[in-house]
Specification:
Shape: globular
Helix content: 10-25%
Number of helices: 6
Number of strands: 18
Radius of gyration: 18 Å
CATH class of the largest domain: Alpha Beta
Order of helices and strands: EEHEEEHEEEEHEEHHEEEHEEEE
């Protein structure tokens, strides 16, 4: 098998920032074990596999180095970027991806790619001691959605300074843990980090799907439908968020850094 393969930095307008995702376009059907093996070889937070459908839409699946996930923002952004930049889809057309989280539509708005994702609001839960111990912080709010834990801290500095015990975080029963606080700079509304050793990713540099939870939370707190999130990982990323009913529109840019072929 041979297939086009790209490495794309997502949620950034410059190389070596944001979150890298591998994007593979196999011309034949791949079984999940093969896709998982390719994702392990790529060793990125997510590897996306996209195939065209007879109706002109695209099938999309995402894999970390160890598991398949139901929703991933940065690898969807990377996939959209690849399809437009390589001419497989005209820049004037929207792209519809069929995924485990339903149909996701991607369009252009100004100089950004926008992705129409389902809102994933968190429900408040009583904070178990294990979360505070694992993070080494005292949460002001803890919630959960169908994928992740949401942990709110008292300040952006606390989020930046976190040094979690990854062994303890891995024991939390969730895809991962979103940690957030109100921003302390005018360029963004809130900051966040995302830890997912449970899914084979210690800290994800930029997590679009986490903003499907962060958007509804900060909309309620700040009273704004349009927000700018800053993920304060080492690489850093800016994610635009617009909450529209039960949908969250995520916006960002992407840059191709490697282009090649998978040969096995």
């Amino acid at each position: 098998m041979s297939a086009p393969l790209y490495l794309v930095d997502a949620f950034t307008d410059r190389p070596f920032a944001g979150n890298p995702a591998a994007v593979c376009l196999p011309e034949v059907h791949l079984d999940p074990l093969t896709m998982q093996a390719v994702a392990g070889e790529m060793n990125q937070a997510e590897t996306a596999f996209i195939r065209t459908r007879p109706d002109g839409d695209w099938d999309l699946r995402w894999f970390t180095p160890t598991v398949e996930v139901e929703l991933c923002g940065h690898a969807t952004l990377a996939s959209t970027h690849v399809l437009w930049e390589t001419g497989r889809v005209s820049h004037s057309l929207s792209i519809r991806f069929h995924t485990q989280s339903g149909v996701l539509t991607c369009t252009r708005r100004g100089g950004h790619i926008e992705m129409d994702f389902p809102a994933e609001p968190a429900t408040p839960v009583q904070s178990p001691a294990e979360e505070a111990f694992a993070l080494g912080a005292a949460p002001t709010y803890v919630g959960r959605n169908r994928m992740d834990m949401l942990v709110v801290l008292g300040s952006a500095a606390e989020v930046r300074d976190l040094a979690p015990d990854m062994g303890q975080v891995a024991g939390i029963q969730a895809r991962g843990v979103i940690v957030t606080a109100r921003s302390d700079v005018p360029e963004s509304d809130f900051v966040s980090r995302f830890f997912a050793p449970q899914s084979g990713v210690a800290e994800d540099p930029a997590t679009g799907s986490a903003h499907c939870c962060l958007g509804p939370y900060w909309r309620e707190v700040l009273g704004k439908d349009e927000l700018i999130g800053r993920q304060v990982s080492k690489r850093g990323a800016t994610i635009r968020v617009r909450v529209v009913g039960d949908r969250v529109i995520l916006g960002g840019s992407a840059v191709t850094v490697v282009e090649g072929r998978l040969g096995v």
